[in-house]
Amino acid sequence: MATPRTVAFHTLGCKLNYSETSAIARLFEDKGYWPVKFEEGADIYVINTCSVTEQADKECKKIVRQALRRQPGAFVVVTGCYAQLKPQEIADIPGVDLVLGAGEKFRILDYVDDLSKAQGKGMVRAGEIRDVNTFHSSFSFGDRTRSFLKVQDGCDYKCSFCTIPMARGASRSDTVERVLQNAREIASKGTREIVLTGVNLGDFGNGTAVIEGEKPRKEALFADLVKELDQVEEVTRFRISSIEPNLLTEEIIATVAASERFMPHFHVPLQSGNDKQLRDMRRRYKRELYAERVALIKQYMPHACIGCDVIVGFPGETNDDFLETYHFLQQLDVSYLHVFTYSERANTLAAEMPGAVSVEERRRRNQALRGLSEMKRRAFYQQHLGTVRPVLFEHDKDAGLLTGFTDNYIKIEVAAGQAEANGLGMVRLGRLSDDGERVESLLFAKDNEIL
Description:
This protein has 14 helices and 20 strands. The protein has 451 residues and is of the alpha/beta class. It is globular, with a radius of gyration of 23 Å.
């Protein structure tokens, strides 16, 4: 068979995965491979997996089948969190040629020649996660509007429901100097907004190898990184993807409040509004601390958008426990919720806990919180109607409309002729759409008039 020259990628899961897929794609491009869309026939398919939910595991098998339908006989490589956790299970999927774990995924090209010579399918290269101790810089590219920049990886926390430490290893970070370099490189490609990502972003600084071969040490804190990035004039906007409440310090909040580049938008996982559940989840805070952080953000930035992760149906969550979470969130000044239905994950403490909640009840609680999220988002949007805010325009929609997000993460629509994708403008927030998911706006000034 001729040496493969085309490669296609498919990413499951989080923003971190998208940044790493882009980095792997650039490795292939540097070696002369031609990236093509997943929908096209390719010589190699690379599938970057997630293992946060049961659906993500099942999705992997479906994507492998889709790849082989498009190009029978193509080489299929599977990497990512699921590949680290269950390498042999993936290797047994018909059509999978190579499984790469967390320590091997950025060495994928080292295996390509061996792959082409392989006599059979299902070659596994996944070492022990405790041996994964290096940091690989990565950022997504392709969408000129926004890029996800990985600055931290791994996690030292031991939440009872989570498999991520087993899939990604110990907490480790990039250096401040290299993050600044990557930010400038992203900006040089015309990208307006950079979203900082990591497994435990607020733990930035842990495991930083300042000099190759040296024992990792803490070079800087996340607050230091934010301050340094705020001086990068080439970048128009920064966002913080998600940060634990116990790591979201007043220093970080104050820096964002005073910044022209960091957006007034925080995503802070809560998981439960019940202290008993937080204890059983092995979270590192109580709900009072979470409420204090929300109040502090609003004190500095009354207009800030605050998102919140919540898990429903965790083992031992009674109906009264759930109602306590619901009422806590109802009173909390957050803008939207990401609601997750608890699913059992192998090798986690939670999977062995008593008091399993029925699947039907888990779904009912999920729907209840999704309804609350819609009400909170609508109320947040309505609060800002009539104000003028900066918007980064992103995509054309049907009916001649252009969509984008304000600095505080309100989704807007304007007539497409008023602005262009990847442009900036000031808009007056007008009417809330009937479904409450966006605001129809009037362009106040175009890109070159405000910069």
